[in-house]
Amino acid sequence: MKKSSIVDRKIKSLYVHIPFCEHICFYCDFVKIIKPKDVNSINKYLNNLQDELASYGNKFDDIKSIYIGGGTPSCLEINETIRMCEILSSYKKESIDFEYSIELNPESITKEKLEIYKQFGINRLSIGVQTFDNNLLKKIGRIHDNSTAIEKYQLAREVGFSNISIDLMYNLFDQKLDNIKVDLEHIKKLKPDHISWYSLIMKEDSVWGKKNLKLPGNDELFDEVVSKGLKKLGYDWYEVSNYCLNNKYSRHNVTYWNNSLFAGVGVGASGFEQIDGQYFLTVNKGNYASYKKNYEKLSTEDYYFQVIMMGLRMVKGIDLNKTKNKTVYNFYRNIIDKKIDQELLEVVDNFLRCTKKGFNIMNEILVDFL
Ligand SMILES: C[S@@+](CC[C@H](N)C(=O)[O-])C[C@H]1O[C@@H](n2cnc3c(N)ncnc32)[C@H](O)[C@@H]1O
Ligand code: SF4
């Protein structure tokens, strides 16, 4: 087949990385640096973002979501925030279901910034609260306290945001089940539309990882309390660590788990792209002043494994009505049948998914697909 006759699948979503933070949390190994004092560095970063976006030509014509993540996008000053939003505004679509999200840290949220986000069409906020316990917040290296988190959440509601997500963590050092119960009480009062509640992962490159700290290992117990507690409050569990009210799941993140194509711009950002019919994982390597996109070509088997690994994170599972997923299912048929016999996987309404037992040992299940 001639290259020119290959029609690539469309890019569905765009991730934009803002790597600047006001402080470094002890558990975090994301690509981030302390915000430089020199404003030219940030302007230069935004200029580079603009060039990188332009290099995609018309590939973003059909995107359904933009996600500005970090780092801490809310730590940009007002003029930098406006510039960032202006650069992205030509990629935003006018359709009513277009999801446009930004990650915020409580301490750097201001009314003026919220109004700018709103004015530029950002319609979903993700606020990094992590825990409502002030002692724990200090221990994990955060610089906000619980009253700031609550106040800024309420401010965002007053400015008119009707889709707000909160990030929380469990299995933190010294965290007790009572702390989780207090977090659940706050959730009950605040009623965020969406919650990402992650179990702490000890990352080698984090401050804690470098000190060789070991995880407390209470995650299964906490997991149970978190998921039962949120269910009681009316939240739907739709992905390993994600819950929502009223079907307000993260449209953007679902594109990752469904193996749709997405582009990542900015230092450290990853993407999943198709070029001339070939799948590539991309990652922008370098530093915030200068970085370069690296392409890792996926073999057919790598691609199939990715469909399984990402898709099984969804509670609903992998849609076997889609031809590409059915092909993957047929490829792994023997392994899948074995896992179904062991009651770790099941097919329900033509979706392949983990059973409750399977969800608890997902990593072990995945190893057998390798
Ligand atoms: C990398 S942060 C970026 C957003 C923002 N700066 C913040 O801190 O909320 C995104 C989320 O990843 C989660 N996260 C980061 N490191 C983690 C780790 N080691 N284990 C579990 N979750 C982690 C936190 O819940 C955090 O809110
Ligand atoms: S968790 Fe957020 S604020 Fe903390 S260091 Fe990581 S990106 Fe920065």
UniProtKB/TrEMBL annotation:
Entry keyword Ribonucleoprotein: no
Example GO BP: porphyrin-containing compound biosynthetic process
Organism domain of life: Bacteria
Pfam family, one: HemN_C
Ranges for domain Radical SAM core: 6-239
Database matches in InterPro entries: Aldolase_TIM (IPR013785), Coproporphyrinogen-III_oxidase (IPR034505), Elp3/MiaA/NifB-like_rSAM (IPR006638), HemN_C (IPR010723), HemW-like (IPR004559), rSAM (IPR007197), rSAM_sf (IPR058240)
Compartment list: Cytoplasm
Gene Ontology CC terms, in alphabetical order: cytoplasm
Gene3D superfamilies: Aldolase class I (3.20.20.70)
UniProt KW keywords: 4Fe-4S, Chaperone, Cytoplasm, Heme, Iron, Iron-sulfur, Metal-binding, S-adenosyl-L-methionine
Keyword S-adenosyl-L-methionine included in the entry's annotation: yes
Matching PROSITE patterns: RADICAL_SAM
Alphabetized GO MF terms: 4 iron, 4 sulfur cluster binding; coproporphyrinogen oxidase activity; metal ion binding
Function of the molecule: Probably acts as a heme chaperone, transferring heme to an unknown acceptor. Binds one molecule of heme per monomer, possibly covalently. Binds 1 [4Fe-4S] cluster. The cluster is coordinated with 3 cysteines and an exchangeable S-adenosyl-L-methionine.
Entry similarity comment: Belongs to the anaerobic coproporphyrinogen-III oxidase family. HemW subfamily.
Record protein name field: Heme chaperone HemW
Originating species: Spiroplasma helicoides
Gene transcribed to yield this protein: hemN
